[in-house]
Amino acid sequence: MECMTTKPYRHAIPPDILALSHERDMLRRKGQYDRADALKRQIEEAGYAIKDNPHGAHLIILPSIEVDGNVFRTSRQLPSLLDEADRCLFSVNILARDSFEQTQRCIQGVLRYAGNYDIEIILVDNASRDELSIWAVALQHSDPRVHVLRVSRAMGEAEARNIGLKQSLGRYILLLDSSVEFTGDVFTPLAKT
Known about the structure:
There is one protein chain. The protein is α/β, with parallel strands linked by helices and 193 residues long. The chain has 2 domains: 4-61, no CATH class; 65-191, Spore Coat Polysaccharide Biosynthesis Protein SpsA, Chain A, CATH 3.90.550. 35% of the residues lie in helices and 25% in strands. It contains 6 helices and 8 strands, in the order ααβββββαβαβαβα. It has helices at residues 15-29, 33-45, 100-113, 132-142, 157-166, 187-191; strands spanning 48-53, 56-61, 65-67, 70-72, 88-96, 119-126, 146-151, 170-177. A hairpin with a 2-residue loop joins β3 and β4 (70-72). α1 (15-29) packs antiparallel against α2 and α3 runs parallel beside α4. The longest helix is centred in the N-terminal third of the chain and has 15 residues, at 15-29. The protein is elongated and about 65 Å long. Residues 1-11 have low confidence and may be disordered.
């Protein structure tokens, strides 16, 4: 019987990853689960998830994340900054996907009402296909308070929020949807709490 991993689910999966998956299938059939699990970890570290089924395994390409020009193959490889000292008072985390105009208004509102507060904006671009990515990178280059985390393939909201949280360096963290548009100062009341 031919294993499912000998034929790529997506043609972009490299032959060496397919070979590891095939070897893992064989080890599982022989009951050598410790060695099979070690290969699974190696495959996952290379940026692929494995979905086992009775006939073998399917490989799934995991989303990579670009942060300030550095690419991390998986969200697990993205370093957490949570244990570092606070570098600003507020981290404003905005999650966006294909919502350029909304996100633009959201960020402009945050910047407009930030006043003299030390803030950072963490924009998680969840694989947008509109002009959001181009605009966000240009904004990042012109405003050092803006950090763009670009995801190559759409991920779930919880995972996308978590990567934004891992990169936050503010004492207080605000989670915003890209549809939120500030119409006044929210930072002063929050700073007093």
